[in-house]
Amino acid sequence: MKVIVKENYDEMSKVCAQMIGSKVKEKPNIILGLATGSTPIGTYKELVKMYKEGQIDFSKITTFNLDEYVGLDKDNPNSYYYFMMENLFKWINIDLKNVNIPDGKALDLSKEVEEYENRLEKSGGVDVQILGIGGNGHIAFNEPGEYLNTKTSVVDLTEDTIIANSRFFNSLDEVPKKAISMGIGSILKSKEIILLASGKSKSKALFEFLTKDRITTYLPVSFLHLHSNLTVICDKDAYSLVEESCLCKKN
Ligand code: F6R
Questions:
Q1: Which of 115, 158, 244, 249 is the most exposed, having the fewest neighbouring CB atoms within 10 Å of its CB?
Q2: Is 237 marked active-site?
Q3: Which domains does the chain have, with CATH numbers?
Q4: SS3 of 35, please?
């Protein structure tokens, strides 16, 4: 595992975008795994900038998003489809036929998750997966608990996540309680993973992950220890508890 600690959110985003940008240049038909939420917005902004400057061509890429809320239409401003359009897709030359995001409004959700996982498999697999991390250690919507799903599934969101995500909604009641999420196994099949973490609210989960070389379903991010090509890019705030514990060991 490689860990890159940057001064702040903007620096973190630039490093991540540079990495993604050079990978798209190397392999124009790359398959990218994408996340939503506050964390990757800066990375997407940088990628849009690079596109506008003529540095990258996205016309041949394929994307798979990690998750989507159950019950929200594509044109609902809180859906992850809408998020991706607003923050990335509508500003670059991606072919929307190559965009894959689970359909949270599918009538048959069991069929939807099965088909999503099949599509992922048939594509040959994600080349580079971008991940954020929940304050509770979740990745995608694989929430801490007794079990974790290996494949794409319909999941119940924990109270922590519902509260954390309510900042985008008018009220807590409006936050969907279920989502479709890639499973831990689906994520681990990616050839390369970049985990982004920014801000103090991520410091505890990042500390638990980076300082303990073990896996537990109660800290879903810990399963990334099983991946052989993982880069963590974080800012100083997210890294603060790890930094403190290193200082304590030195003194
Ligand atoms: C989003 C996702 C989630 C977020 C995580 C952090 O597609 O899979 O796991 O990455 O909840 O969210 P933010 O970035 O909003 O703190």
A1: 249
A2: no
A3: 2-250 (3.40.50.1360)
A4: coil
